[in-house]
Design goal:
Blueprint (H helix, E strand, L loop, with lengths): L2 E5 L9 E4 L9 E10 L2 H8 L8 E2 L3 E9 L11 E5 L9 E5 L3 E3 L6 H5 L2 H13 L11 E4 L5 H12 L3 E6 L2 H9 L4 E4 L5 H8 L5 E6 L6 H5 L2 E9 L22 E4 L2 H4 L3 H16 L7 E6 L3 H9 L6 E5 L1
Parallel strand pairs: 9-10, 9-12, 10-11, 12-13, 13-14, 15-16
Antiparallel strand pairs: 1-2, 1-4, 3-5, 3-7, 3-16, 5-6, 6-8
The protein binds NADP nicotinamide-adenine-dinucleotide phosphate.
NADP nicotinamide-adenine-dinucleotide phosphate binds next to helix 1, helix 3, helix 4 and helix 10.
Length: about 325
């Protein structure tokens, strides 16, 4: 029987168990896919702990790559034997075999390996919609400064490279000198070690006192309010994660005196709600990866059985770049 990593209760990494599962035929609009690799993402932690609660028992994992085994009625963009990859709800990519909606599954170009794909779909599509669609009212022009927290992480290293290709001056934050070096070597124009330095003061210094047009903030609780202080008037605070904990309730009035700021809370799943949108974003991502503009750096690989260690390392801020579970 195929194996999968499931939880039956929300909690710590030890709650994840390797179990045998039964996988049937794909229904209308579905595919059955045999995974070669699955990507690790911070959202998996939120789902494991119940911060984002799902129905139990739950097979975790939102990002995968493998070979399509069978397609259900009405699926015309994939066929059995296709190499494919996805970032998708519902969770379930921590598995050898699964049936899932075909909507977010795309054909994988021949020059992109399964492990690379598993390390880039969710993170790369996120970097895509952030840098290209999550924009301040004044837009972003070449030479503009943006602030990107956790710049040496999975989403972060992709964003550093893509931002550079777009001509942006990305100021990255990261939790150590070594991580700052990594961000710089992947295209960040500046890097701030926010475990030691006052990132607001550094951003003001780098931008000649003006501040940035956008802050992309996935750290959440620990950075939210100070991120607002990095923005120039009419700037955009793009909150998209909670690595340090969810942003507490706040008073909208605090946006006014800081310069009539804008605030948005973004999620990838709004952007990939349709097959057409998913394909268009994936095509954009494949173009920069195949063209060598964005390199997918897989710094950690674990066998599926060692997923608990992978979660511990991610939560302990020990990882950089992408992490892949080999299946
Ligand atoms: N909304 C969306 O559409 C969407 C999609 C994808 C990802 N995300 C979010 O984007 C972020 C990055 O995701 P990822 O999977 O690529 O993870 P990641 O960046 O590889 O790992 C998270 C990083 O966050 C930083 N961090 C800061 N405070 C932390 C804390 N208290 N505990 C743990 N980490 C902390 C750490 O980097 P430093 O040590 O350098 O601080 C850590 O390495 C996550 O918050 C994720 O939820 C959101």
């Amino acid at each position: 029987m195929p194996r999968a990593i499931q939880i039956t209760a929300f909690g710590g990494p030890e709650n994840m168990q390797l179990v045998d599962v039964t996988v049937g035929e794909p229904g209308p609009g579905e595919v059955r896919i045999r995974h070669h690799a699955s990507g690790l993402n911070f959202i998996d932690v939120y789902q494991r702990t119940g911060l984002y609660p799902g129905a139990l028992p739950l097979t975790l994992g939102m990002e995968g790559a493998g070979v399509v085994e069978a397609v259900g009625a009405g699926v015309s963009h994939l066929m059995a034997g296709d190499r494919a990859a996805y970032a998708s709800n519902p969770p379930g990519s921590y598995s050898e075999l699964r049936v899932m909606p075909a909507r977010n599954v795309v054909k994988l170009p021949a020059d992109i390996a399964f492990d690379t794909a598993a390390g880039m779909m969710l993170k790369g599509l996120t970097a895509q919609y952030l840098l290209k669609k999550t924009l301040p009212v004044e837009g972003l022009q070449a030479g503009d400064h943006v602030l990107f927290h956790a710049a040496a992480g999975g989403v972060g290293l992709i964003a550093c490279q893509w931002a550079k290709a777009l001509g942006l001056q990305l100021i990255g934050t990261a939790g150590s000198a070594a991580k700052c070096e990594l961000a710089l070597s992947h295209g960040a124009a500046h890097a701030i070690d926010y475990s030691r330095e006052d990132f607001v003061a550094r951003v003001k210094d780098i931008t000649g006192g003006r501040g940035v047009k956008v802050v992309y903030d996935s750290v959440g609780k620990d950075t939210f309010e100070r991120s607002l202080d990095c923005l120039r008037p009419f700037g955009l605070m793009a909150s998209f994660g909670n690595a340090s904990g969810p942003v507490p309730p706040f008073v909208p009035g605090m946006l006014g005196p800081r310069g009539s700021l804008y605030l948005t809370r973004q999620t990838l799943f709004t952007h990939i709600a349709t097959r057409e949108a998913t394909q268009a974003m994936a095509d954009d991502l494949f173009a920069v990866v195949s063209g060598g503009v964005v390199k997918i750096r897989i710094d950690q690989r674990y066998p599926l059985e060692q997923v608990a260690q992978a979660h511990r390392d991610l939560e302990a801020r020990k990882t950089t770049g992408s992490t892949v579970l080999m299946i």
